[in-house]
Design a protein that fits this description.
This protein has 216 residues and is mainly α. Helix content is 82%, strand content 0%.
């Protein structure tokens, strides 16, 4: 990557990681709910800025929308879980559109099988751990997002795994609402898994889209 690109764009990734780490260590501190909500949204919000600065065209715009919706969902979720869930579902729908527009030309039988497992398993396990039909309905979009990411042409070991980390993070959230007690894992792992997944997705998609742009 040219030095000018490093100077102009890499700081958005660094700022995103700093904001996410700060939220992880401060979320239960009495520094003010509003500040924590803003800090929480800044993690993925800055990834959206990074994607906006580094991509162009329809696919780049869809990525930015998906990340921006997730950032909004992160903040709204603190105040209203259903509204936050609706925003996350919208984010998943945008991501599904992006991945389906960029399907891999050839997909092996094992890759297709794993996509099916994600599509079915995400809502099934979400219901198992939460015992909530509404969460299972939301998780249909979650599973479809992960399945579509896995069969997309984006780097599977970055974007695909990032989507799987997103799913696991949500499962841990849902476990706090149901009869299965997994503590202390949710409080320790939810945010790192979620943000790592979003970071992998954002950088993987941007890297691929940037590779298609003519060199200036």
């Amino acid at each position: 990557m040219p030095k000018t690109a490093l100077i102009e764009h890499r700081p958005w990734l660094l700022a995103s990681v700093i904001a996410a780490c700060a939220y992880y260590f401060l979320w239960n501190n009495p520094i003010g709910e509003l500040y924590l909500i803003i800090l929480k949204g800044a993690g993925v919000g800055l990834l959206a800025v990074y994607a906006f600065r580094r991509t162009s065209g329809i696919d780049g715009a869809i990525l930015v929308v998906a990340l921006a919706l997730s950032a909004a969902a992160d903040m709204v979720l603190v105040l209203d879980m259903r509204a936050g869930g609706a925003l996350f579902a919208a984010s998943h729908l945008a991501a599904i559109l992006l991945y389906l527009r960029n399907r891999r030309e050839t997909t092996s039988a094992s890759q297709k099988m794993l996509a099916i497992v994600l599509l079915i398993g995400a809502p099934a396990i979400s219901y198992l751990v939460s015992q909530d039909p509404l969460i299972a309905i939301y998780a249909v979009t979650l599973g479809a997002m992960a399945a579509a990411a896995w069969i997309s042409r984006f780097p599977r070991y970055r974007v695909g795994i990032g989507a799987v980390l997103f799913v696991v993070s949500d499962w841990l959230i849902f476990s706090e609402l149901g009869p299965i007690d997994l503590s202390p894992l949710p409080s320790i792992l939810i945010w790192p898994l979620y943000f790592a997944g979003q970071l992998m997705i954002a950088t993987g998609v941007v890297q691929t889209l940037r590779g298609e742009r003519p060199t200036k």
